[in-house]
């Protein structure tokens, strides 16, 4: 066969060529094996391997789509650590002097009652409580933000002394004129209707430095005064303070955590840091911040959008906000978040008070309340595990030192005791003062991290292993297969384009046949030329002239004449082509194609001969 012979491309030819040269195991065996039994056997082997590959890959994909996770624990040693924030609340919400004054005013009809305080006596106040242990008594009092700011325990009443690593936090003795923010410390007030006027202490780590050493000799030390004489025993059956240690950026939800310390003691609180990293959807169900939380849209619809400014998201604060938002939706008032600009739930308003009681009863008892779905655990969470130990404090000698070192305390003692020197003793200090020392236990901290049990890179690695195990498929094999698809698509587009080009309307057929003016003799004369053939039989219309070509099997195919323009080899032309030309102009005009007429072929000598076997 001549080297210039070209095989007509078909899908079958492309597939055989791919199978004979593919790097996929088994295909070459199927393509090159001439024995029928061997071909069938190799086909069965290939299909069996393909079935095993399909099952194994589907198993791996299902394993990945489960989105399982594992939790790892790692102990990390840090060179320096942030000292956490500390929130302190007096267990007495309002001072006794304020409550007694309000009761006297309410009994006197000439005075206007204070908003939110509508009780005339202790008996009327107790009747409002539905709990046998009076645990709901503070909720019935109706404490407002104005009450807490005016009659709550101020920071200069509560914090008597503060040192960090033996450095004075305030650079001076604490007084009523003390600013809430100094060079070394910043104190923020957080009012709570259940815990009173709380104070959050944040150390300035720029001036005081971060934690680089540990131990009881270092850390934060506070001396606190609970002002026991301002406790109203009916509302405050216990004495002391509540302390909560939390991240510096977090909102203190003291009502949901913290530890309680009582006067007359010195408490040591050692801290161990614990970091938790959770995976978001689809591996887990956590929230980065309020902006991304399901609660976000609810906040926006109820004009509480400012709460989303809290960049540090905690699950406890989300629960607190969510409950208040639902209370606002049902009763058009708020209770716990006294920083809100909405109307406060006034217990003196019977309608609002009844609505609030019904809401609390239904919402708190419903285990599937909306907040369970709206509040998710934080993706990044920092916890502080504390270890508490206490001792009796102070002894008599240290008490005398305290009175000499802080002379302003002596005047407070005398004033509170009605100028009775009997109160300036150990009993008074034991009942009013306490000291707390907070320090970091060690520089190591624990990190609990959720990881993907089966990640996407692992899936790809296992899929690659399966492809290689069953069929020997590699990345090159995949590229070869895509090349085959590209050739098939290209062949299909070429055939589609040809079929569209050869479809000509009847109106153009007449002009086409009239334009065909060259006979078979013209083709013979052109075959003798050494130059490339220039068959210029183009009509004036959009459709090129056509001619019939018959193959060895006797089939006829329609070709466009310009397809012959690139034929330059006369010998190839004679061997490969046999035309049944439309040699007569009159026949072209009548559009009558003679398929069974004797063929005119070109001989080697260049003469035109007739083949009657056709």
Automatic annotation (TrEMBL):
GO cellular component term, pick one: plasma membrane
TM spans (from-to): 40-61
UniProt-annotated location(s): Membrane
Membrane topology: Multi-pass membrane protein
InterPro entries: ENaC (IPR001873)
A Pfam match: ASC
Main localization (coarse): membrane
Keywords of this entry: Ion channel, Ion transport, Membrane, Sodium, Sodium channel, Sodium transport, Transmembrane, Transmembrane helix, Transport
One MF term in the entry's GO annotations: ligand-gated sodium channel activity
Similarity remark: Belongs to the amiloride-sensitive sodium channel (TC 1.A.6) family.
Protein name (Swiss-Prot/TrEMBL): Acid-sensing ion channel 4-A like protein
């Amino acid at each position: 066969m001549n080297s210039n012979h070209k095989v007509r491309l078909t899908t079958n030819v492309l597939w055989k060529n791919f199978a004979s040269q593919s790097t996929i195991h088994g295909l070459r065996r199927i393509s090159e094996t001439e024995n029928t039994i061997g071909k069938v056997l190799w086909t069965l082997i290939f299909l069996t391997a393909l079935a095993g590959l399909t099952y194994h890959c589907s198993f791996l994909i299902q394993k990945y789509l489960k989105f399982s996770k594992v939790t790892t624990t790692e102990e990390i040693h840090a060179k320096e650590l942030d000292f956490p924030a500390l929130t302190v609340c007096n267990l007495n919400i309002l001072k006794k002097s304020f409550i007694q004054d309000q009761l006297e005013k309410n009994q006197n009809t000439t005075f206007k009652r204070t908003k939110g305080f509508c009780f005339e006596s202790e008996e009327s106040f107790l009747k409002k409580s539905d709990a046998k242990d009076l645990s709901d008594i503070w909720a019935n009092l109706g404490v407002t933000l104005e009450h807490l700011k005016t009659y709550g325990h101020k920071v200069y009443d509560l914090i008597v002394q503060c040192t960090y690593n033996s450095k004075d936090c305030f650079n001076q003795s604490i007084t009523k004129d003390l600013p809430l923010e100094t060079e070394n410390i910043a104190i923020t007030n957080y009012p709570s209707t259940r815990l009173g006027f709380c104070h959050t202490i944040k150390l300035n780590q720029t001036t005081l430095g971060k934690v680089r050493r540990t131990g009881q000799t270092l850390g934060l030390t506070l001396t606190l005064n609970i002002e026991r004489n301002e406790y109203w025993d009916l509302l405050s059956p216990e004495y002391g303070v509540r302390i909560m240690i939390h991240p510096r950026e977090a909102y203190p939800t003291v009502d949901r955590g913290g530890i309680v310390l009582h006067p007359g003691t010195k408490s040591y609180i050692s801290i161990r840091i614990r970091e938790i990293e959770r995976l978001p959807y689809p591996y887990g169900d956590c929230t980065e911040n309020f902006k991304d939380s399901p609660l976000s849209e609810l906040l926006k619809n109820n004009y509480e959008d400012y709460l989303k400014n809290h960049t540090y998201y905690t699950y406890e604060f989300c629960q607190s906000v969510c409950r208040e938002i639902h209370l606002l939706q049902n009763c058009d008032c708020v209770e716990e978040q006294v920083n809100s600009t909405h109307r406060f739930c006034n217990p003196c308003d019977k309608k609002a008070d009844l609505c609030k009681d019904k809401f609390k009863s239904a919402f708190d008892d419903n285990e599937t309340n909306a907040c369970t779905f709206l509040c998710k655990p934080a993706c990044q969470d920092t916890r502080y595990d504390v270890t508490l130990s206490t001792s009796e404090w102070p002894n008599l000698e240290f008490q005398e030192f305290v009175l000499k070192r802080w002379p302003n305390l002596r005047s407070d003692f005398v004033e509170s005791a009605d100028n009775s020197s009997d109160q300036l003793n150990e009993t008074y200090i034991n009942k009013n003062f306490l000291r707390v020392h907070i320090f970091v236990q060690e520089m190591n901290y624990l990190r609990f991290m959720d990881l993907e049990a089966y990640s996407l890179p692992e899936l790809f690695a296992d899929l690659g292993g399966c492809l290689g195990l069953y069929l020997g498929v590699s990345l090159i094999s995949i590229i070869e297969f895509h090349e085959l698809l590209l050739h098939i698509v290209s062949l299909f587009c070429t055939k589609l384009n040809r079929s569209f080009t050869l479809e000509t309307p009847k109106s153009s057929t007449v002009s086409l046949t009239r334009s065909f003016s060259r006979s078979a003799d013209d083709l013979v004369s052109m075959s003798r030329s050494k130059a490339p053939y220039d068959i210029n039989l183009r009509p004036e219309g959009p459709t090129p002239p056509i001619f019939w070509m018959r193959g060895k099997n006797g089939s006829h195919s329609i070709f466009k004449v310009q397809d012959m323009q690139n034929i330059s080899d006369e010998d190839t032309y004679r061997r490969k082509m046999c035309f049944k030309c439309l040699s007569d102009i009159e026949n072209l005009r009548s559009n009558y194609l003679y398929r069974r007429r004797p063929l005119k072929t070109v001989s080697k000598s260049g003469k035109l001969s007739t083949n009657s076997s056709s």
